[in-house]
Design brief:
748 residues; alpha+beta; Immunoglobulin-like; globular
């Protein structure tokens, strides 16, 4: 056998030996740091490429460089002498494919004269030294040399610099090693760190965003704003309201001039929808619009916060988050936990105490309603994801199979949290489900209890895993779920107050300061961090009660802005202008019934029940407006307009997308037509009283749009009425036009 035939074996043996002893030659590239960073920077170990579950082209790497030892073995021990060729480094497949010298489905990743090429070639030339033990970054902190830039459209680009802070040692620049991302398509960043306007940027507009730098498992951000060339950062006159003051500095820095304050008509309708989920009655609208006294908006907030509909609306919101649906909980369980939620908001219970009770709950799902939280979450992993997302604003699901690619959480963090919730178990007293083949359906009471001898094993090494709460260790107590509830409810918890404050802001304005509202991570920074911190601290100061923070937001100028683009351009964060958004499914249905005055009756519920008060997903198979039987029309309507199935612990399941099916429901659907044609509705009552045309028109405008008609609208409606041979038909046509208008269908 020739010496050449021994070359692959010798190369592999040498690489293996080098892997067993840490390299101390700092002149040689470090595999754990520099080589792994180059693979990540070039996208080689990303999900669409070799970091895929099954790899690509016969090469599988750990996702985003999770496992340096695994990647080293793959590169040096498989196809040894080909992927890395220490005798002729430039002939290594690792280099030839990445530079386009050989066909490569991933295309050219870098050039032969690049720094990435030199690092990989030097590493191969040095004999492929293996990864050192421990964390290659140690206690070092990754950061940008400058954490924020304000650029101008006349010079809209700049080079960013990233450094590693290593304690007492001088910072090391690692710009050439980091992988780049941006939080918006309005910005783009080159490999050398040059940031500039992106493909979606509109020249001359205000652009806000962040650049994310990632080195192995460390991530950091730099905020970048590009302002119009003649932007003036002059002082902004705002009220002394604390919300407005928290936003003042940032708006001044960006040169944004907010939209004006909205009219009384807009504020009235907006507040009713945001606080109660319903429209004001004509009498309520008249009273507010005719009131000329000072402070009437603040008094209206107090009045609405004290109404029972406020509790209905927030019970609906939390029922979405807690997966309150009939298939898993059954009808009795749905009513039990919905009633518990409504009562909690009626009593103004602190949000952290509600969270504590839900997480620590057990017992009969009928007599201990909070236990239904676990009835919808059948395994430890699902519970861990739901608890993290709902109460902490953390989407930890990506860490189930590998370290989180966009956040700090490791696979161990995920499964340690799952271990804390693994002892939860169920005793099904009787399952009277309708479909014996559907194992996801439960009908009958269940007893949630703690199975104390439960052992949760890590899915990779199969070793028993000690419970922990995202870095916080559980004590030796056997009741770990109760410990978890206490930890979440602790005012010092770093995530709970922040997540709930953001959720409240998103509910009131339509967009979270962190968006999505339950996706807190370094790579998804808050658009207005100073406001988020203020709201978080205020929620803590108010003992986690909901109403004080809502009033604070509702009385600010920031909430009262008109839904129009400011003179300085659109504000993508919606802190300088109100956000137009469609009514939620239940809001829309209740608005239709309120505007027409034709109540819908739901079988099995008291007369006068609104769709916003329904505890579960299913309305009723026999819901009917007036006396007309619509079968499942109510359920179809609500589903069409985005009512969620409640299969996810996320408000994202409720869709706000407009569809053709929605247009057909409004234009030709039986429900709207039946509400209008109901002889006992608002129009019917007005006609019985022989009300004048002018008064009828004002009434339906107030009922539908919470305002009086303009002179032009009144004149046009009167012309139509005077020309029509059938007064009722003409009024139905006029009202139908209001119900399908943008002004009615949108929250302004």
């Amino acid at each position: 056998m020739t010496s050449a035939s021994f070359l692959p074996f010798i190369t592999a043996l040498t690489a293996f030996a080098q892997a067993e002893r840490p390299s101390i030659d700092q002149a040689k590239p470090s595999f754990s740091l520099e080589v792994m960073a180059v693979l990540s920077r070039s996208g080689c170990n990303s999900g669409p490429c070799h970091g895929n579950l099954n790899g690509k082209g016969g090469l599988k790497l750990s996702l985003r460089g999770d496992d340096a030892a695994f990647d080293f073995k793959v590169l040096t021990h498989e196809l040894s002498g080909r992927r890395v060729n220490t005798s002729a480094p430039e002939e290594s497949l690792l280099l030839r494919k990445a530079t386009g010298g050989l066909p490569h489905e991933g295309g050219r990743r870098f050039s032969a004269d690049s720094r990435e090429y030199r690092i990989l070639k030097d590493w191969i030339s040095a004999g492929c030294p293996g990864p050192h033990g421990g964390d290659p970054l140690g206690q070092a902190t990754l950061r940008f040399a400058t954490e924020e830039f304000f650029l101008s459209w006349d010079k809209p680009s700049i080079g960013l610099k990233v450094v590693l802070d290593r304690g007492g040692n001088s910072p090391r620049e690692v710009t050439h090693l980091v992988a780049w991302e941006t939080t918006t398509l309005q910005l783009t960043v080159e490999k050398d760190g040059t940031v500039a306007p992106g493909p979606m940027a509109k020249p001359g507009s205000i652009i806000e965003g962040a650049v994310v730098a990632r080195l192995l498992d460390r991530q950091t951000i730099c905020r970048v704003a590009i302002l119009p060339q003649n932007s003036k950062r002059s002082p902004l006159a705002v009220t002394q309201h604390p919300v407005d003051l928290a936003l003042k500095g940032r708006l001044e820095q960006l040169g944004i001039r907010p939209a004006p304050i909205c009219s009384d008509e807009v504020y009235l309708r907006r507040l009713y929808l945001d606080l109660l989920g319903i429209l004001p009655t004509p009498a309520e609208a008249r009273a507010f619009l005719d009131d000329t006294s000072a402070g009437k908006r603040s008094r209206l907030v107090d009045t609405l916060l004290a109404r029972p509909e406020f509790c209905d609306y927030w019970a609906l919101k939390w029922a979405d988050l807690l997966r309150v649906e009939e298939k898993t909980l059954d009808a009795n369980g749905v009513r039990a936990i919905h009633g518990w939620l409504r009562q909690a908001f009626a009593e103004d219970r602190p949000l952290n105490e509600m969270a504590r009770e839900l997480v620590a709950s057990r017992g009969s799902t009928y007599s201990a309603p909070a236990a239904n939280f676990y009835r919808a979450l059948r395994d430890a992993e699902t519970r861990a994801e739901a608890v993290a997302q709902v109460f902490l604003g953390i989407r930890i699901g990506c860490a189930k199979c590998h370290n989180h690619p966009f956040d700090r959480w490791k696979q161990d963090d995920y499964h340690a949290l799952a271990a804390a919730l693994a002892p939860i178990d169920y005793r099904v007293t009787a399952n009277k489900r309708k479909d014996d083949l559907d194992k996801h359906e439960f009908a009958g009471d269940q007893i949630v209890f703690l199975k104390r001898d439960t052992v949760y094993r890590h899915p990779v090494n199969k070793k028993p895993l000690a419970p922990a709460f995202l870095g916080y260790k559980a004590s030796g107590s056997a009741d770990v779920p109760r410990q978890l509830g206490d930890w979440i409810a602790d005012p010092k918890n770093p995530w709970f107050a922040r997540a709930q404050a953001n959720r409240i802001w998103r509910h009131m304005t339509g967009k979270g300061l962190v968006d999505p509202e339950d996706d807190f991570r370094v790579t998804n920074p808050a658009s207005r961090p100073e406001l988020l911190e203020f709201l978080t601290e205020r929620l803590r100061e108010e003992n986690f009660q909901l109403r004080p923070l809502i009033k604070l937001i509702a009385t600010s100028d920031s909430y009262q802005r008109a839904a129009q683009v400011p003179a300085t351009g659109p504000d993508e964060t919606y802190t300088a202008q109100a956000m137009l958004r469609p009514l939620k499914a239940e809001q829309l249905l209740d608005a239709l019934t309120s505007a027409t005055g034709s109540a819908i009756r739901f079988d099995g519920y008291p007369r006068g029940t609104r769709s916003g008060q329904l505890p579960g997903v299913i309305a009723s198979a026999k819901a009917r407006p007036g006396r007309a039987n619509t079968g499942g029309e109510i359920d179809r309507f609500l589903k069409t307009f985005g009512k969620p199935d409640r299969l996810l612990s996320c408000d994202c399941e409720r869709t706000e997308d407009t569809t053709l099916a929605q247009s057909l429901q409004l234009l030709a659907g039986p429900l709207v037509q039946q509400l209008l044609a109901d002889q006992s509705n608002r129009l019917g009552e007005l006609l019985k009283k022989e009300t004048s045309n002018e008064a009828v028109i004002e009434e339906i405008w107030l009922a539908s749009l919470s305002r009086r008609p303009t002179p032009a609208e009144l004149a046009g409606a009167l012309v139509l009425l005077n020309q029509s041979p059938d007064r009722r038909t003409a009024l139905e046509d006029i009202e139908w036009g209001l119900l399908v208008s943008r002004e009615f269908l949108l929250r302004h």
